[in-house]
């Protein structure tokens, strides 16, 4: 199954050389921003199958200006390019996430090519936190603060079909800024459950980020990261994606392949993260409950996602720009799917 990588950067993305070595046939689409240094494009041009999109080349997409600049949401342009390339699976990663072994891409593609036989997790409180599978355990960014930690229920499952495969990480764990300020996490290993891999019961809510996650081409419309949401952009996209997956009997998988990431965060960046997470902290449970209850038309993923963003446009706390940009993105992706 053809896989493509999509990311954005404001640095020289040295890690892409390793991705290229591990997957010489994998096309990598890197969207530049207005503050991306020229050296980043020079580096991308030196890596085989790495296509760097300068800002001027992005204007043909209807959603481009609505996404804003100096924003992680520029990754949506890389997503569009990956879909246009014909990829059956798209991988989101950050430019500082290092793949942990040479079978990195194979581990992802095999999950989508074959039905999954193994462990299915659910939870008595309705939420599964993949951070519980790391050592030491952490609370994944986006798990609502009002949801208490609870051990998962484990069941056997045969031939589960994967829609999203979220690879876990070692090093600097992706936790809420509140947790990072109080107790900076450092993950050094994964528990046996993470090594084996699990799928989540479609009736159990979870979240995944955009650091190391692969998904089927047909789900690309739902993986849109909307502007105006701060650090809720990828988390809310994960909840929307799960909603349309439920209509199709698809599962989220957590486990391998892993990436490693260590970041130096200053006090100022931690406080900015906290500010950017206020919507996430205040509204995630409400947002997830809305998605759980909403009825979707019996239609394509594009139309179902359009319906969701249409409903959200009438919500008093929802940023207007998020739905405006989503509608433009959906027009763009409909033309390349």
Describe the structure.
With 337 residues, the protein is of the alpha/beta class. The protein has a single domain, classed as Alpha-Beta Complex (Spore Coat Polysaccharide Biosynthesis Protein SpsA, Chain A). Helices cover 35% and strands 21% of the residues. The strands form two sheets. Strands 1, 2, 3, 4, 5, 6, 8, 9, 11, 12 and 13 form an eleven-stranded mixed beta sheet that branches. The chain has a two-stranded antiparallel ribbon with strand order 7-10. Helix 1 (15-22) links the parallel strand 1 and strand 2 (27-32).
Brief synopsis:
With 337 residues, the protein is an alpha/beta fold.
The CATH architecture can be named as Alpha-Beta Complex
Determine the CATH topology: Spore Coat Polysaccharide Biosynthesis Protein SpsA, Chain A
**Percent of residues in β-strands:** 15-25%
Low-confidence stretches: none
Q: How would you sum up the major sheet?
A: 11 strands, mixed
Q: What percent of residues adopt helix (DSSP H or I)?
A: 25-40%
Mean pLDDT: 95
What is the global morphology? globular
N- to C-terminal distance: 16 Å
The number of helical elements comes to 12
Which features would summarize this protein structure in a list?
single chain, alpha/beta, Spore Coat Polysaccharide Biosynthesis Protein SpsA, Chain A, two-stranded antiparallel ribbon, 12 helices, 13 strands, 35% helix, 21% strand, globular
């Amino acid at each position: 199954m053809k896989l493509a990588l999509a990311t954005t950067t404001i640095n020289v993305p040295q890690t892409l050389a390793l991705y290229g070595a591990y997957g010489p046939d994998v096309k990598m689409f890197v969207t530049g921003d207005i503050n991306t240094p020229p050296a980043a494009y020079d580096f991308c041009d030196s890596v085989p199958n790495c296509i760097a999109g300068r800002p001027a080349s992005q204007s043909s997409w209807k959603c481009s200006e609505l996404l804003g600049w100096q924003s992680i949401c520029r990754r949506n342009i890389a997503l569009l390019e990956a879909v246009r390339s014909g990829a059956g699976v798209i991988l989101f990663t950050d430019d500082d996430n290092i793949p942990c072994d040479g079978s990195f891409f194979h581990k992802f593609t095999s999950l989508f090519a074959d039905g999954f036989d193994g462990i299915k997790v659910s939870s008595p409180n309705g939420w599964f936190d993949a951070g519980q599978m790391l050592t030491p355990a952490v609370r994944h960014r986006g798990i609502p603060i009002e949801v208490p930690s609870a051990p998962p229920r484990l069941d056997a499952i045969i031939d589960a079909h994967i829609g999203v495969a979220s690879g876990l990480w070692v090093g600097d764990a992706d936790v809420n800024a509140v947790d990072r300020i109080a107790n900076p996490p450092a993950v050094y290993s994964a528990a046996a459950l993470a090594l084996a891999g699990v799928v989540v019961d479609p009736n159990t809510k979870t979240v995944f980020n955009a650091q190391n996650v692969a998904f089927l081409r047909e789900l690309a419309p739902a993986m849109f990261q909307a502007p105006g949401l701060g650090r809720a952009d990828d988390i809310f996209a994960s909840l929307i994606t799960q909603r349309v997956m439920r209509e199709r009997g698809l599962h989220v998988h957590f486990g391998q392949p892993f990436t490693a990431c260590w970041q130096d965060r200053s006090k100022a960046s931690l406080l900015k993260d906290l500010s950017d997470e206020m919507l996430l902290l205040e509204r995630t449970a409400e947002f997830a409950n809305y998605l759980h209850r909403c009825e979707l038309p019996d239609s394509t993923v594009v139309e179902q996602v359009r319906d969701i963003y249409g409903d959200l446009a009438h919500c008093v706390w929802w940023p207007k720009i998020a739905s405006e940009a989503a509608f433009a993105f959906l027009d763009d992706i409909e033309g390349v799917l």
